[in-house]
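User: Hi! I have a protein structure encoded as tokens and I'd like to know what sequence might fold into it. I'm fairly new to this, so please keep things simple.
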């Protein structure tokens, strides 16, 4: 059956027109779905009964089955959802004093196999459709309203590579951003990528005001080759050039995510190399202390090592923030989310 959350506002407008309904019906449906969060067409009470029946005959309003909900001692909540074909995905609600963020998965599993990340361990199963992406956001939005503050930010940093599922990602972003949809400002939506260059270029043509984060993690081509197999296809220097182009074209900054692994990426040699790579590049750097994954034997640097590294970058005019690990105790922190299947 046709899942209605896979239908864009434009297509819904065409559908309404074909049924000789005014085009504002599409907006009304959208508002019920994404603001009213109704689970049945019957509840769309500002439309005729006949039309609701027609909708019911043509579409379904799906929902995600929650398999597990784990609450971290820091307040982060990890949800494990089961999809219709029994694939499982994970989604995280991250409350802070000033914002409530949902971390969304875009694929069941991941094909990129970064050497420090749990999401790629079981390989890749399939792309999520835009309804499955939106349902994660809607579920957490509903929970956030009950438990904490309204949802304010969306980060595509869950399982999978968002830019490897480009069309469904963009479709979902439009709904999240649209004022008739979830109405979350573009600047509060972040897409993180392992560096799929052609899609970074494509994204820069769209003119969306969303935030782009690049998982850099290596400090030069060689170190990135070891940590991230994607670097063999899209090498370090090409990635940095693509980022320069993106910044120039969109007039927006990029955040570089950089994992801190003891004695591997958190060294003074690494800082020196980053200095060379970031010459005259205005950017933000987000340092992510390695979150333990049982299959790998990397270690997290000490607080002192992290501060020393950050200070060294500062001397080179690279300004960075350190990402506070959230939800580590429930396997909900960056890189700890994993694919499963029932
Ligand atoms: N595939 C996308 C989206 C994942 S975002 C990407 O690569 O950007 C998740 C972020 O957490 C990425 O920056 C990822 O590299 C990082 N990460 C993965 N494993 C990690 C770990 N064990 N500790 C800390 N960060 C990790």
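Assistant: Happy to help. Inverse folding works backwards from shape to sequence: for each of the 342 positions I chose a residue that suits the local structure. Here it is:
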């Amino acid at each position: 059956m046709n899942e209605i959350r896979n239908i864009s506002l434009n297509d819904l407008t065409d559908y309404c027109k074909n049924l000789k309904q005014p085009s504002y019906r599409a907006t009304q449906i959208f508002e019920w779905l994404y603001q009213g969060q109704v689970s049945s067409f019957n509840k769309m009470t500002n439309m005729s009964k006949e039309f609701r029946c027609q909708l019911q005959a043509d579409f379904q309003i799906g929902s995600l089955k929650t398999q597990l909900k784990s609450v971290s001692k820091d307040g982060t909540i990890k949800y494990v959802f089961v999809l219709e074909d029994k694939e499982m995905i994970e989604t995280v609600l991250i409350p802070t004093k000033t914002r409530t963020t949902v971390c969304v998965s875009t694929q069941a599993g991941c094909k990129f196999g970064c050497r420090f990340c749990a999401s790629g361990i079981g390989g890749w199963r399939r792309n999520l459709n835009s309804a499955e992406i939106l349902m994660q956001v809607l579920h957490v939005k509903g929970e956030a309203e009950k438990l904490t503050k309204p949802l304010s930010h969306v980060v595509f940093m869950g399982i999978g590579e968002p830019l490897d599922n480009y069309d469904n990602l963009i479709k979902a972003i439009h709904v999240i951003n649209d004022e008739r949809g979830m109405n979350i400002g573009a600047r509060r939506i972040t897409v993180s990528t392992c560096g799929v260059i052609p899609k970074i270029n494509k994204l820069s043509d769209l003119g969306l005001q969303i935030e782009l984060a690049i998982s850099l993690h290596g400090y030069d081509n060689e170190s990135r080759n070891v940590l991230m197999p994607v670097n063999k296809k899209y090498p370090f220097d090409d990635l940095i050039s693509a980022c320069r182009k993106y910044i120039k074209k969109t007039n927006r900054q990029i955040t570089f995510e950089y994992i801190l692994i003891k004695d591997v990426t958190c060294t003074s040699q690494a800082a020196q190399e980053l200095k060379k790579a970031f010459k005259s590049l205005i950017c933000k750097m987000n340092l992510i202390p390695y979150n333990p994954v049982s299959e790998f034997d990397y270690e997290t640097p000490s607080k002192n090592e992290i501060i020393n590294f950050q200070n060294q970058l500062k001397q080179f005019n690279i300004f960075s923030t350190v990402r506070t690990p959230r939800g580590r105790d429930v396997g909900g922190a960056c890189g700890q989310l994993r694919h499963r299947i029932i």
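A useful reference point when you look it over: The longest helix spans residues 130-147. Feel free to ask if any position seems puzzling.
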